[in-house]
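Predict the 3D structure for this chain.
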Amino acid sequence: MRKAQLVSEILGEFLFPILGFLFWDWDLYFVLLFILFDYTIRLLFAFFRPQTRSLKHLLRPLIFFLTFSVTSHFYMVLTEPTWRFVTAFSDFFWYQDFYIPQGLLVVPLLIYTETSRQKMELMTTGVFDAIKQLKKTGARLLYGTLIFMLMSIGLALFSWGDTVEISFFLVSWLGLILIEHKGAFLKA
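Done. Predicted structure below.
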């Protein structure tokens, strides 16, 4: 059953951003905003769950989320000094495909994805461990921060282009998902 969770995570966290890059002309920041929306919704769900509502459980993931947000935005300023958060955020949210702003589609989709993730965990293991999921979210945000730190060093050393930076990020993000679910590969 862990393979089903792996496929689900790859589809939700990797395939959608790569489709955005390939078909909807998403740049690295659009992919980053998609991920930030996803983890914001996960943390909001964690806040409203009775098991994870305490500061003891939420503090570490919130700090990692803040660190991930600051580091990734720092990287965006490094790549383009004239970059502005409000303009880029507005461009992402109101970007239209089929005459519908993508922000109005992405947010409900991510809410649905989070509820589906909970239901799948409940079906595969028989219990939904909210604290374990919150720790997993915090770890992914911490490793995402490390990816952006590596990308900042790579930018300083190699002056890479847009395609290389988004490819590096997406491959690294996929690597995080696969390493996190290495147990699915080890079981027959």
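The radius of gyration is 17 Å.
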